[in-house]
Amino acid sequence: MNNIKTKLQEVYLPFLIVSIGTILFYNIFRWTLDIKLGILPLKENLLNFWIPFALPWIPILIWLRRRIRILNVRGKRDNGYFGYQFAMAAAMAVPIIISQNYLEKSSFDLNEISSISKVKSLKNEKYFKIASFDVNHNSSLSYVTARTSGRHNDNLNFYLYLACPFENTNSIWYGVEYKKNLSNRINEQRKNSEYRTFLNKSEKEFDTYNFQDVKYFERLGYSDDRDGFIEAIKERNTNLNEKEQIILVPKKDVFDNRLGNSFPWIFGSFGIGALVLLIMVLIPKIDEKEFRDLKKNKPLKEDDLKDILGFLNPMGKNKATAILLLLNIIVFLVMIFDGLNIVSPTPKELLEIGGNRRFEVMNGEYWRLFSSMFIHGGLLHLFMNLIGLGLGSSLLENVLGSVKLIIVYIICGILASLASIYWHENTVSVGASGAIFGLYGLILAFTVFKIYPNYMRGMTWMLLGLYAGVSLLFGFLGGIDNAAHFGGLISGFVIGGILILINKEQLKKNAS
Fold it and tell me: Count of CB atoms within 10 A of residue 185's CB?
């Protein structure tokens, strides 16, 4: 009984307090700054999913991670403990995500108005039932884009946005959206065929679209869909004030049913998660030593989080590696908070913030050869490149030194960007992979010419095969800029060869 009481007091009760506090904090934060005051300049997909998905890890790592260690989890190391952290994060994240749907929809009433022009006077409202309105079908403006989705960008999604002006008003638009998804693994000819079929079918459906078949309208907030409609409107209005545009999308369900079962599921999902955690906490025995250390506030002896933070310390042992990793992470965060889709930004969006393409570079925008190295086409793209960069640069920094590593990284990245625009005429290229392949080109040179000691060469060959080899293989399957990969790999190998010719003995000494 004492063991059960200890586990409840030291692990489960703190989890309940932290999780309830986190859920309440985020909902109050969102309601106050976004819904009530409208001063939170973040897209809805970030507020509704990605921030709730990531937020629980902060209090877990600060307050609960140490407490989990008093449980004698089989498997030791952090494998078992990470399972507990993941379960805690899920128990918090799911109700937060569900509550955002409820919070967004329940915070606004249905406004019944006589004419469309009155929408402008209701700036802080979201839902409208309009007694009478007319739409200028023939003046509709369109914008087509595509995004990838899925764990490995397996899906290709086409979107057609049609913005139609309401009669007798300006800056208020009736939004109609069509979309189609298909496999991203099919060949380019099939994709082009599916694209044309999608456009033709959508245009035929739009020709007979019934604009009056609507129960109420929803004003779009800051989202990817709103951006799509804005792009359509900008086709003919280059000096458009985007903030003044109001996009109304039709809703055909009953307004009172908009919330569904989201409210009870907020509590239901948290209850399920809390029950699972309770069982997980009660099963293992207490690690008496860890319990005593917790009571004495002793730090963990093996702390992977501390090791990771130390690895990312730009003043630490691996300065260049930390700087390059942090630069890529910071640029990605700036992209996301600037409004780009966290999973799959479009080529147009990537080009606007510094992506690499032949036309722009050949017309004097040479800075794109550099800027594109730090821009990524989604979270998975960033994550894979961070792994490759961390592994590759950590094998080179002691050999080259911090300054030389950064210089080589930049040179290889620029040469990879040049290879990309030489090979591709109209492809928008982004990502650190060209520069990373440059580092692996150096590793290849140092392995072939025996700069690394014998005991390391097996590991370097394995790393080259697992990362560089597999990445190049996937590049041949499509969707990856292999021209930049080969450009980086070859330039890195050549630079490595030059460095070996100049100072082979010093490099061997550093590597050992």
Answer: 15
Is residue 61 classed as helix, strand or coil in its secondary structure? Answer: helix
Measure the CA angle with vertex 294, ends 292 and 299; round to 5°.
115
The Cα–Cα gap between 93 and 23 comes to 8
pLDDT in tens, 76-105: 455 678 899 999 999 999 999 999 999 999
> What is the rounded CA–CA span in Å between residue 331 and residue 337?
10
Distance, CA of 77 to CA of 96 (rounded, Å):
30
Residues 240, 255: Cα–Cα separation, whole Å: 32
Which pLDDT value is given to residue 457?
Answer: 74
In Å, what is the CA distance from 214 to each residue of 117, 141, 223, 252?
A: 18, 20, 22, 5
- The end-to-end CA distance of the chain, in Å, is 56
CATH topology of domain 307-511: Rhomboid-like fold (1.20.1540)
Closest C-alpha to 381, from 474, 313, 466: 474
Active site residues: 433, 485
The position carrying tokens 């580092």 is 439
Q: What are 135's strand-pairing partners?
A: 166
Sign of the alpha-carbon torsion through 398, 402, 407, 411? positive
Q: Which residues of the chain have pLDDT under 50?
A: 76
Q: Could you tell me whether strands 216-219 and 246-251 are parallel, antiparallel, or unpaired per DSSP bridges?
A: antiparallel
Could you state, in order of their start, the residue ranges of all structural domains in the chain? 2-107+260-299, 136-210+216-251, 307-511
Residue-level pLDDT at 469: 64
- Model-level pTM? 0.86
